[in-house]
Each structure stands twice: as C-alpha cells, then as structure tokens.
Design brief:
With 395 residues, the protein is of the alpha/beta class. The chain is built from ten helices and 16 strands. The protein has two domains: 3-185 and 303-394, Aminopeptidase; 188-301, 2-Layer Sandwich (Alpha-Beta Plaits). The protein has helices at 3-13, 15-27, 36-48, 107-123, 146-152, 212-230, 268-288, 308-322, 339-343, 378-394; strands at 54-56, 60-66, 74-80, 131-137, 163-174, 178-180, 183-186, 188-197, 201-202, 237-245, 252-253, 256-265, 292-301, 304-306, 327-329, 348-356. It has an eight-stranded mixed beta sheet, with helices on both faces. The chain has a four-stranded antiparallel beta sheet with strand order 10-12-8-13. A two-stranded antiparallel sheet has the order 7-14. Helix 1 packs antiparallel against helix 10 (378-394).
Length: 395
C-alpha cells in the first residue's frame, strides 16, 4: 500500500472520531482567549494519542510528531479554536449549549480536523523524515489575534518551520471541493472608533448647541472619499462603519455620538497612509464644525499573502488526494485572518475547505446564526492536511 493510500485509509477509519470531536466542540463553544475547556479537551485527545502537548499563549497548544531524522525539516499545521458571540438558531443535536456563543466560523471544524491529522500522522511517524508541528491557536476572532501570542511564545521557533499551512471552511464551495489562491489573498483589518463631541441642548434651539449627530454624519460620508479619491482603484480597500450610537429621543441634541467601523487593505504602505488620513480628516471636520472628534484605532491583522511556491505544492498534493476536478482557484477576499501573522514570517499557504450542500439546505455563510457544515467535508479534511504536510516534508 502506498503512503497516499495509507493516509486515505486512516482518514476514513477516523472520520467518525473527527465528527464526534467537532460536535463536542460545536456544542461547547468558548469566546476568544477564554478557551479553557476547549484547550483542556484538545489536550486530552492529544495525550490519548501518546503525545505531550505544550501549553502556549495561555489557551493554546503546540505539539510535535517526530519522524525519522527529525532535524531534517520541520513543517507546521495550524487550527484556531475560539467561537463567536452569536446565538445559534440551528436545531441540530450538537447545537450550542451556551446562549450567545456559537462556532459560527468553523473553528470547531478546523480543530477537529487537525486532531484527525495528528492521529493519522502519529501512526505514520515511521513512514516519513522530519518533524511536523501542530498549532492549536486561541483568539483568532479578536484583536490582536491569538497568532501574535503564539508567535510571542515561540510557536515558530526551535527550529523555524520551512512552511506553515492553514485550513478554513468555505460555505461558498460544495463539500468535497478545495480552494486555493496564490499571492495576496486576505486583507488587513483595523478597527476605527470615533467619539464625536459637541454641545447638547434642545432640538428646537440648535443655535445654542453644537450638534454631534450632524458632525458624525458629515464625517461618515466624507471619510468615504479617502477610499474613492485617495486609494488607487487598482488597490482593493474598504472602509465600513457598522455602528453609530447617539441620542435618546426626538427633541434632544446629545453631547456625543460614537461611531465604530473597519478599515481593510491589501498593502501595508497604503494601510498606514489610509489610517493617517482617516484620523486627520475626522479630527479636522469635527473641529471645523465647532466640535471635537477623538479617534481611536485598534490595529488588527496584517494582510495575508500565500507563498506561491508553497501554494502550488499543496495544491498539487490536494489534486493527488481529491482529484483535479475537486481543486479550484478562488478570488481574493477583503475578509481578514490572523494566520496572516504567520505568513509574514514563514512561507505560508491558507486554503479553503468546501462545506456547502444545497440539497441538505446547508448554505449559510460564516458569522451567521444559521451557519453549519456538511459533515461529508470531514471525510477528507484531516487526511488532506496530513498528506499536504507529508508532501511539504518531501519538497
């Protein structure tokens, strides 16, 4: 039996385990940096395989499998473990048991799939040369990103991996399909918080006030000019304000208005320039209208770049594993992922696992209360990652 056939056989053998792990994690979600029970559960599984995971980043884990000649080469695989503050509305046996918390971005899939990869590769440790490092990461959904803490705690050191691979669910692709993109793939993501301060008063006497609502409206509309007139039309970028709070009734002009939004870019120089312009324009507009704007920018993840060489190699591995008809090229997205931190330091590739099944009614996008996956995707997710790691060791 070839090594590929062995990986496929073990993947099939452990599919029900992967499904069970995923369902347990889905029913017991935890928010970013609060993954205490999750990390305990993952560690228990790893120890049951005979491995000794190392705690990092407070609620993260690193574990390694050494093959023959372990110092020859090291490659890394990563999964994230945190959930989102969303109330699940799906009526499924594994529905979240925690109101207001849900695995709505598939991190339960990523973690269970990586556990499956660990189990497969642990059984094949005498079949390969080198070392495979597995990163179970907290806090992908919340700044500054758990990847930054994993890196801080040495997850990419001693030695630095030759490459790192990440997998993410993709509800736009049918289960069984795998998506790849070389080069720039995902955007940086920074959070913009604006406090517009005016002078409150009676709505019937606006001349005695400085209306922060009017100022805030002007700021929101004017800041869009930074995208339409300062960013190159060849450069993907977006500025969205998703929250505005101010006032309590019809005839009272409030003292302040609070605005929150996100700025996305795919170029680090433009990212810094865009943030500078946002701050300057918001402050100047408010001052020009007699008020004040306090600008707070929470720096988020850098843009994610898939190393072309690594991406081509793992795409070739996926073609071997699932067939060319199930491997597709995907477009860039202005979504963000803290896997980008790894991609800034190590040749990296972040690919997509199809999870959609229209016949079963599984079509909801991530970050929605109806998100779910076709669990047929779990039949290939673990073995695929294992095969990619083995091919990376051989490269």
């Amino acid at each position: 039996m070839s090594l590929l056939e062995k990986v496929k056989s073990l993947s099939q053998q452990y599919t029900q385990d992967v499904i069970a792990w995923r369902r347990h994690l889905h029913a017991n979600p935890e928010l970013s940096y609060q993954e205490y029970e999750t990390v305990k559960y993952v560690a228990e599984q790893l120890k049951s395989f005979g491995l000794n995971p190392k705690a990092v980043a407070d609620t993260g884990l690193v574990v390694e499998i050494e093959g023959k000649n372990p110092s020859k080469k090291t490659v890394a695989l990563r999964a994230d473990m945190d959930a989102l503050p969303i109330t699940e509305v799906n009526e499924v046996p594994y529905k979240s048991t925690k109101p207001g918390i849900m695995h709505a971005c598939g991190h339960d899939v990523h973690t269970s799939s990586l556990l499956g990869s660990v189990k497969i590769l642990n059984e094949l440790r005498n079949e390969f040369e080198g070392t495979i490092r597995f990163l179970f990461q907290p806090g992908e959904e919340k700044n500054p990103g758990g990847a930054s803490y994993m890196i801080r705690d040495g997850a990419l050191e001693n030695p630095k991996p030759a490459s790192i691979i990440g997998q993410h669910v993709f509800p736009l692709l049918p289960a069984g399909k795998i998506g790849f993109r070389e080069g720039m793939y995902m955007a940086s993501a920074d959070e913009i918080y604006l406090k517009v301060i005016g002078k409150g008063g009676h709505g019937a006497a606006p001349e005695l006030t400085i209306d922060p609502i009017v100022i805030a409206c002007n700021i929101i509309v004017s800041l869009q000019q930074i995208i339409s007139r300062n960013a190159s039309p060849k450069q993907p970028t977006v500025l969205t304000f998703g929250k505005i709070e101010g006032g309590a009734t019809t005839n009272v002009i409030p003292m302040e208005v609070n605005i929150a939004g996100t700025f996305r870019a795919m170029n680090e120089e433009w990212r810094e320039e865009g943030l500078r312009r946002i701050k300057k324009m918001a402050e100047s507009l408010a001052e020009g209208m007699g008020g004040k704007c306090e600008v707070n920018i929470s720096k988020g993840y850098p843009f994610l770049q898939n190393d072309p060489t690594v991406t081509r190699r793992i795409k070739a591995a996926a073609t071997e594993y699932v067939g060319a008809e199930n491997v597709v090229d995907i477009d860039i997205t202005l979504g963000a992922e803290d896997f980008a931190y790894y991609s800034q330091l190590v040749p990296a590739s972040f690919y997509r696992l199809g999870t959609r099944n229209e016949a079963k009614g599984i079509t909801s996008y991530v970050h929605t209360p109806t998100f779910d996956i076709d669990e047929d995707a779990l039949k290939i997710s673990s073995g695929l990652m294992a095969w990619m790691a083995l091919q990376e060791l051989r490269s």
